[in-house]
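Page 37, top half.
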Amino acid sequence: MINKLINQYEDNSQKFKQLEHASQKKLNKLAFTRLLSFVLAILFFSLILKHNLVIALTSSICFLIIFVFSIIKYNKLKILKNHYQKLKEINYLEITALKGDFSGFANGKEFINRSGLFYLRL
């Protein structure tokens, strides 16, 4: 019974590790997209400004919109990656607890009130 639970938690941990890795790859691509769109916005504005102000502003605004959307997407994906990390950590703690090692969990010392009325009953 315990071995079945351990296997299930190990499978979950492996799945979350893969999802975290995939999220990191997407984060790297989004970081590059952010940089590229910002540089292109400045570059297009400075190069096309000599010829036509309207086209320079339009192209720069388009690249800046891509830049903003990539920031929003990056932040959402970063939260999701952190979520996968925490799920992986939770599964690892469960595996160690099932094996009898509870050192990964807080021991609750901060909640013991030695001056309380019910301290001796604990």
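Page 37, bottom half:
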Amino acid sequence: MAKKTTKKAASSAAATTGVGDTLQIPGINWKEIRLFILGITSLMFNRFPHETLVGIQETLEKGPEEQKKPRAKALPPAMQAFRALYLDDKERVCVPSWHIKAAMGNAVSMLPGNGMGKILSKAKFRGAVHVLGFKIPLASTPYTINSQMVKSGGKSGGRVPAHRPEFALWALPVTIKFDADLFTPEAVVALLARAGSQCGIGSYRINCNGPHGEFRPGAEREYREG
């Protein structure tokens, strides 16, 4: 029985070329590293609610006369801030994993021309580095409501009040899967550190001319104590 199992496993890792011989396909040398992100500046969210997208679509489908009618009153600040959160199926506040990967991808373009910046492209990074999980639960203090006047984004170009959740102290654990033939664990940590100090995550983050969302990699002890 053991011999049959071995032959089956070997055949699943091989491809037939069509000329009677077999081509061995080497696997990718994937490794995983568990890191902890510690916030340096406050984190702010501004998720675009699904209900807003539906409302925009319904407005566009209406005739010109219907579109001219007054819009419904804005939601109270507390409700606006709550709707801007990312929540998982357990109603926990989360950070989407793709926000972290996007920050790391943006940091690739900031690498110096010598060393890693000379050989690493964004396309290569996207295929070789993955932040695991879909939504990562956030460890934080309770949020406060950040109220500011922002551009409406409409044709008028006016400003409207926006109420968004802001977390003064925050942290989260991340697991990063990477191609060990292209990256060392030290290179992954260095890239994450650059992403935290030069890009950030969340709304009005540092690479969008804002002060929010700056972070650094930290030790598990710091994460637990914080």
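Margin note: Residues 29-225 form one domain.
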